[in-house]
Amino acid sequence: MTLQPPNPLVLSVRDLHVAFGETTAVQGLSFDIHRGETLALVGESGSGKSATALSILRLIEREGGQITRGSIRLEGDRPDEITTLSAAALRALRGDRVAMVFQEPMTSLNPVMKIGAQISETLSLHLGLRGQAARDAARAALERVKVPEPELRLDQYPHELSGGLRQRVMIAMALTCEPELLIADEPTTALDVTTQAGILQLIASLQAKMGMAVLFITHDLGVVSEIADRVVVLKDGLKVEEGYTAEIFSVPRAAYTRELMAASPRLGEGAPLPLKKPETVLQLSGLTTTYGGGLFASHSAVAAVRDVSITLGRGETLGLVGESGCGKSTLARSIMRLVDPSKGHIDLLGTHIEGLSRAALKPHRRSIQMVFQDPYASLNPRMSIGDAVTEPAFIAGMVTSSDRKALALALLVRVGLPTDCVARYPHQFSGGQRQRICIARALSVEPQIIVADEAVSALDVSNARRITDLMADIQNSDGVSMLFISHDIAVVERVSHRIAIMLNGEIVETGPTDCVLNDPQHPYTKRLLSAVPRLDRIGA
């Protein structure tokens, strides 16, 4: 390939070392970013990606880390050595010359401040705007990132916006001062494919207009292939490979890069063959779940799930796919009777459970268990792992207090965790390990059905692959049925015998996975598939 002369240098990182106490997070990292360039930092959880990003803004100290050696130099007309800047100089730099967009906008936005006030705060700090001038500039910032009805959004709170809109607000705030460098730390990981495509396109178009450099941090190699000019691959805080995206993805030199690519799901790799008329273990008939409404409600009722009818066979995995807000999680919670459906039937192993009282439902709960997206939020931080994984079995009366440890040890072995961690607590494990713990907990009552609600969406590609392989092994050995909910169509393809596509609370298409994905009939299914980032598009 013909290499163009690089644009002016924006950021230079040299021999960066970052530590958290006695633990080294980044070791001797060096890289450059030029004006108008997108550099992707790629690696698994714990590789040092986010520690590097936080170090560039000197936010690492707030997280208990420390830059122990090296240089982080912001170039241009006003060169600065970031590692030696005073607190006041850092406040002036953050949001002005360097801005950051984080993975989860709900935790980055102030939940008790309106959107307009939060954007105006940045405008006031860096540009000195006040009052109506700040509000006008805030509205213009929302218009720039294509937020619909920007005047209305200024007076809304973060919880009133969808995940995609919240991320657009974060980008609007980051770009108010037209920074020289935008750091995007996993900004699309939790988003569905169409929302993700919109955010990536937005960042690219704004970058082209403003000429800013972008440091894009992700574990999604499909996203990297679509947006990055160059790639730096990190493993355990060390740079193992660096180069132009097309070159690295065509001929990766490092074994670790090859491992990452092998673990990345690719649409079109094929799905498990459909099972031949398996016994039905779960059948939904005309299921509808409604939120709101009622005599004293301030809003009319909204049907989050509308007239859904699906079946799940013994030993089968049904993949459920759709955008954020389509009703996937509400459907899962309705099946589990964590919310009550307003009409329709849930036939669980021959029993209609939709109208059962809490007491009558209890003996049926051990038949169907759930694994949630965020394992840390679904584990009690004060409960040891041994107690956590055996709690469902203990509540169900399947094990006595004296037998819990033996069961815990057996479950940990089952999910590939060392038995000496039985007395440890959730914060002492990685994200992938915590998800294994949640699977072990679900298995403690020997369920016949597992509902996995975005169970791997927050994990890096290697951990996600290990978890889905584990679930497949459990299914093959125990004949467990699974409802696998995800916005990642490539992952769904790999694990699902059949697939159901959900839009606005309704199932719009269903069938054997290969049939639906290779010959989609519904326009929405076609739109979803066209939005999936794909490694095979590299260089196209």
- Summarize the amount of helix as a percent range: 25-40%
Parts with pLDDT < 50 across at least 5 consecutive residues? none
Multimer state: single chain
CATH class term of one domain: Alpha Beta
Q: Strand fraction band?
A: 15-25%
Radius of gyration: 25 Å
Tally the beta strands: 20
Number of helices: 20
CATH superfamily membership of one domain: P-loop containing nucleotide triphosphate hydrolases
What's the main sheet like? Answer: 6 strands, mixed
Question: Looking across the biggest beta sheet, what order are the strands in?
Answer: 6-7-8-3-9-10
Q: What class, by secondary structure content?
A: alpha/beta
Instruction: Assign the CATH topology of one domain.
Output: Rossmann fold
Cα distance spanning the termini: 13 Å
What's the CATH architecture name of one domain?
Answer: 3-Layer(aba) Sandwich
Summarize model confidence as the mean pLDDT. 89
What is the 3D shape? globular
What does this protein look like?
- The protein has 20 helices and 20 strands.
- It is globular.
- Among the domains are: 157 residues, Rossmann fold; 79 residues, no CATH class; 139 residues, 3-Layer(aba) Sandwich (Rossmann fold), CATH 3.40.50.
- α17 links the parallel β17 and β18.
- The strands form four sheets. Strands 6-7-8-3-9-10 form a six-stranded mixed sheet, sandwiched between helices. The chain has a six-stranded mixed sheet with strand order 16-17-18-13-19-20, sandwiched between helices. Strands 2-1-4-5 form a four-stranded antiparallel sheet, covered by helices on one side.
- With 540 residues, it is α/β, with parallel strands linked by helices.
- 36% of the residues lie in helices and 25% in strands.
- Keywords: ATP-binding, Cell inner membrane, Cell membrane, Hydrolase, Membrane, Nucleotide-binding, Plasmid, Repeat, Translocase, Transport.
- One of its GO terms (biological process) is transmembrane transport.
- Its EC number is 7.4.2.10.
- The complex is composed of two ATP-binding proteins (GsiA), two transmembrane proteins (GsiC and GsiD) and a solute-binding protein (GsiB).
- It catalyses: glutathione(out) + ATP + H2O = glutathione(in) + ADP + phosphate + H(+).
